[in-house]
Specification:
Helix content: 25-40%
Number of helices: 20
Low-confidence stretches: 1-40, 571-576
Distance between the termini: 73 Å
Number of strands: 30
CATH architecture of the largest domain: 4-Layer Sandwich
GO molecular function, one term: metal ion binding
Protein name: 5'-Nucleotidase domain-containing protein
Oligomer: single chain
Family: Belongs to the 5'-nucleotidase family.
Pfam family, one: SLH
Keywords: Hydrolase, Nucleotide-binding, Signal
Length: 713
Amino acid sequence: MEKVLAKKMISSMLSAVVVAASVLPGLAGAAGTAGTAGESKGFELRILHTNDTHAHLDQVARRVTAVNAARNDSTLLLDAGDVFSGTLYFNQYNGLADLYFMNLLGYDAMVLGNHEFDKGPKVLADFVKQAKFPLLSANIDFSTEPALQKESDQAIGVPASNGKIYPAMIKEVNGEKVGIIGLTTPDTAVLSSPGQNIKFQDEVESAQQQVDAFEEMGIEMIIALTHLGYNADVALAEQVKGLDIIVGGHSHTILNEPKVVHADEEPTLIVQTGEYDNNLGQLDVTFNDEGVVTAWKGQLIPLNKKDDAGNYTIASDPAAAEKLAEYAKALEELKKTVVGKSGVELNGERESVRKEETNLGNLMADGMRSKVMSIVKDPDAKAYVTIQNSGGIRASIGAGDITLGHLLTTMPYGNNLTALKMTGEEIVAALENGVSGVEDGAGRFPQVSGLRFYYDSTKQPEKVDSVTGTTEQEGQRIASVQILNEDGTYSDIDPDAYYIVATNSYVADGGDFYSSMKQAKEDGRLYELNLVDYEVFREHLDQVGNVKISTEGRITDLLGAALPAEAGGNAGATNGPVFKDIVNDPALAMIQEAAEAGIIKGYEDGTFRPDRVVTRAEFAVLISRAFDMKKAGNAAEFTDAHLIPAWAQDSIAALDGAGLLKAWPGMAFKPMEPMTASEAATLLRAISDSYDVTGEAKSLTRKAAVLLIMEAL
């Protein structure tokens, strides 16, 4: 039975906070929780296990120490897949640096994860050939893939040879035979790059076939080494008879103690360590003479734990540390690799990205959305959008060549791309949270793709207790959220409809107070894509080519103004407006005439705010309205074009097309700088020959701008 990713959502139901213990000599920490299903003096087995290390080798020298200290004469050392992809160690060495340490440690087996196929069958074949242990997967057919035909065997490995792929194997441990089955997520077909020749089969059927084969061979102690994800492991335990232990991966789930399925019968234990080599898993089990688990104790040994003095509680193995230093030398040169090119500066400055739309935020969000759209196919989803927290954008990227080092500086956290299925109402709630810390420069401020939204920072923000997570004050800032249609138009978000939201793993787990996203995850509406963010961005750069992106009006702070008509408001509809703050102003009649002509607009609270300073971008819009100037071609290539707001781009292009911006010297437009009266007068003289007023070199107010324009008309 073939599974389609759109119909299979994988959810990690556990906290990402590790409360692990260590049993290594001299290490602090309490022992893990133990479960018992009766007493026995049968066969005792220790399983040490890792999963989803993703080329995070910084802890590997401590892993060597931990494994060597915990290993006894009845130990299996297993890896549950996804050694590939995640850091520059993989970019440089294609998994062979990781493999060196796995060979050094003497792993007994590894299941193939989806990321093992990221560079295609040939790169995987190089890894397999050099492995000094067998690799497993019972639900993958390699028979028609030339690169892996010789390295794969469809029979159970009895015994299994190093550097070969088997569906399952029998390993003799301290005189006892243990069966180990490998299972890989069928979603690999769309999550990675296995090519057309490798076929994936249903994991439940494949597992049961191997269990039955083991039982016919008299093998009663059976382990499933899986890269399926926590929820799929639970389902496997419930549906496949005869499994004693599931050593899992793929969902990056932290299990501080084993999950026990049907404990009142013949128990099946499920273990997983989390991610990125942060923990070494240890499971001690006892089997009775019938091969049934009768006692167990599982725990996680933290590899990056420090004592009060700041020293690691597990020392690095000196030889492993020396070898890692050798591997690390090449990475500095790798950071210089050019991965893209930009014709504009990409704005990731903290003071910009945490309070407004930026072109770098747009570029990143577009790449995330594009990748999710290529993978997640959900017929129930009305559209695809991105919400990326700005705290994950740490630096700008200058115009010119974009290097791998730039990417790692801009997004240094190695967050994974994740997709959530959320209602429109939940998306609005997420955006409300996102704009509620804008005054403080909070990292939760959202950069978006596939939608635009309007908010008002003068209104009440949402307030959440950071300790309890309870909402103390409801936010009232989001005024409108609209979804991008295929034809480029926008439609109001449907609060009851489902949308696919591209985000990162941190936000999906409720980071930066994104509670509506965490709720979607906990409800099981999560797609675990586990694609590292800088690689997604790099792929998008390949697709885009020379980057020329600008801001597009995806995020608008109304600042107390009325919601514009295109967003569902009635700004600009005057019907004879009377602005309450200028009722006694001598210029009232002229200002009202300008408002009725659609040249100037008031604010939502009925005020005009005559003394508010006008920016250069705002004045360009007023001029284009007053003289009915339409865009005719693209605007000049201003050096700061990426700073021009989307709502002003057509107006500035119209002025430039009419040759009027030649009156303003310089190649920078400076859209958000205050307009001066002298600059306004210069521009108006260029438009109207009869206009001969000379303005002062001081900032232009809204009232003064209207009077100058009306006089020119």
